[in-house]
Design brief:
Blueprint lengths: L8 E4 L6 H17 L7 E5 L5 H14 L4 E4 L5 H10 L4 E5 L8 E8 L3 E2 L2 H12 L11 H6 L3 E4 L2 H10 L3 H7 L2 E5 L6 H10 L3 E4 L21 H10 L3 E5 L6 E5 L4 E2 L1 H15 L6 E4 L5 H8 L4 E4 L3 H11 L3 E3 L5 E3 L8 H15 L3 H12 L3 E7 L3 H13 L10 E5 L4 E5 L4 E6 L6 E7 L2 H15 L2
Parallel strand pairs: 2-3, 2-4, 3-7, 8-9, 8-10, 13-14, 13-15
Antiparallel strand pairs: 1-5, 4-5, 5-6, 10-11, 11-12, 15-16, 17-21, 18-19, 19-20, 20-21
Helix pairs in contact: 1-2, 1-4, 6-8, 7-13, 8-13, 10-11, 10-13, 10-14
Length: 470
């Protein structure tokens, strides 16, 4: 069965991610489009550098074209945010990116986008799953890619210049030019180099790039920018005296940052820095949206400026929907994805990197100086994150304990309330919290806690781990 999680459908290559399953999903999408009578409104298809991504993108295009659906096929490897941007700009009804984002190299997958260039909602993916369940192999209608191009059903799209110009138009390029920052980029063997290089070099930054060759094994590491995977970036930033090191994940919708001192800047702090910068230094107005596993520092910043911070379940589709509903200024998550009002309805590591470079240029301050300014004003927020793998039997046991019996350990802190909206989140009266939830993209149990010290956060995580026997 093809099941969608918080970041689309992802599966092991050769096991569930196969040509037949990609075609089944594509035929289901074609059936939906025909039932909605929007074959001529367009379906955007793009792909990243993963193994089979280029071929799978063609399989999707061939099935859609075989069903009479107009396809806009992005002409080369592309970041997911660029594909979402293209769905919006082309006023297409749907789109797809062939990617498994930051998952291990033996995974691939498909993210589905809807009109406006937004992540498909849970209601939409449920409809897609229902359609898939009714498709059999004999139903698949497909034509050769070249035939689709010749008859005009598949149109080759080249959206790079338009996307890059849009990003440049949202940044203070003159301020960046004056600062002439020295930047080191680690695309993690993914797809960010072309776009980020175009943006940063246009802004006269001195840019060097590592880990850029095409390697479907991602150099033997997860294409996820975190403190473990960005060690080479950290070492080189310090050794060569760069102002900032930027790492992007496999499909470039998330980023990780190394400051000039070699410190990894947690995505929570990236969000806080940018929100504070937009409010204080640019004088913009608007609230923030975060998922329930993201720092409450955003709440404090929002209150200080007379704004609200809204909490939503994990999945960027929830963030973008709430941003639109409340006209929020910024939305993001602790895994490194964010966007701001006026940009695409999804996370964009390329734009976020450009905005960080603008922040350094406009303020003339380092990341550590700006973080010190924030912490002195709002206090310290320390997050500890744990991931645990489990068997199916153990998952059944955990589900019963957490969601049926609703049992929790004694954390040693008085609870203000408990939420079951997405996993289990305990809010403590002193302002700290802990959340336990199953990942929507991998077979993992995630346990995150945030307190005013790392020691406290570690202790309550350990109490949860011992209670669940994981």
């Amino acid at each position: 069965m093809i099941k969608f999680g918080t970041g689309g459908w992802r599966a092991l290559i050769g096991e569930e991610f196969t040509r037949e399953n990609v075609q089944l999903l594509s035929q289901a999408m074609a059936n939906i489009i025909k039932d909605q009578n929007c074959q001529n409104k367009g379906f955007v298809v793009g792909y990243d550098r993963r193994f089979l991504s280029d071929k799978a993108a063609r399989w999707i295009a061939e099935v859609l074209a075989g069903n009479g659906v107009k396809v806009l096929f992005v002409n080369e490897i592309a970041p997911t945010p660029l594909i979402m941007f293209t769905v919006n700009r082309a006023e297409a009804e749907y789109g797809a990116a062939v990617t498994a984002s930051h998952n291990p190299a033996d995974y691939n997958g498909i993210k589905i986008f809807t009109r406006g260039g937004r992540d498909a909602t849970e209601d939409t993916t449920k409809v897609i799953e229902d359609y898939i369940a009714r498709v059999i192999k004999e139903d698949i209608q497909s034509i050769e890619f070249g035939q689709g191009v010749d008859n005009g059903r598949i149109q080759i799209a080249d959206p790079f210049n338009t996307y890059i110009d849009t990003v440049l138009g949202m940044l203070d390029i003159e301020a960046i030019k004056k600062r002439r920052l020295k930047i080191l980029l680690d695309p993690m063997y993914g797809v960010s180099r072309t776009c980020l290089q175009a943006v940063l070099v246009t802004a006269r930054c001195e840019l060097d790039i590592i880990n850029d060759r095409h390697d479907t094994l991602f150099g033997g590491r997860l294409p996820s920018p975190n403190t473990q995977t960005l060690q080479r970036l950290r070492d080189m930033v310090v050794e060569k005296g760069y102002d900032i090191g930027i790492g992007t994940d496999g499909d470039a919708d998330r980023l990780g940052i190394i400051d000039k001192n070699g410190d990894f800047i947690h995505p929570n702090n990236i969000l806080a820095l940018l929100y504070y910068y937009l409010l204080k230094y640019k004088g913009w107005k608007g609230g923030a949206v975060r998922n329930l596993a993201t720092t409450h520092l955003l709440d404090k910043i929002a209150r200080d400026f007379g704004e609200e911070c809204h909490e939503v379940p994990v999945g960027f589709k929830h963030i973008s929907s709430m941003m639109e509903a409340r006209n929020a200024l910024i939305g993001g998550e602790s895994s490194g994805g964010l966007t701001i009002r006026g940009h695409i309805k999804g996370k964009d590591g390329i734009f976020a990197a450009g905005l960080l470079v603008e922040m350094l240029s406009v303020t003339g301050k380092s990341l550590s100086d700006l973080l010190k300014e924030i912490h002195e004003k709002y206090g310290y927020f320390h997050m500890v994150e744990n991931d645990f793998r489990f068997s199916q039997d153990k998952k059944t046991e955990l589900m019963k304990t957490l969601f049926t019996d609703k049992l929790l350990p004694d954390f040693g802190y008085e609870a203000d309330r408990v939420s079951y909206s997405d996993g289990v989140k305990v809010y403590f009266k002193d302002g700290g919290w802990i959340i336990v939830r199953f990942s929507g993209t991998e077979s993992l149990l995630r346990v995150f806690a945030e307190m005013d010290s790392e020691e406290k956060a570690s202790i309550i995580c350990e109490k949860m781990k011992e209670f669940l026997n994981i």
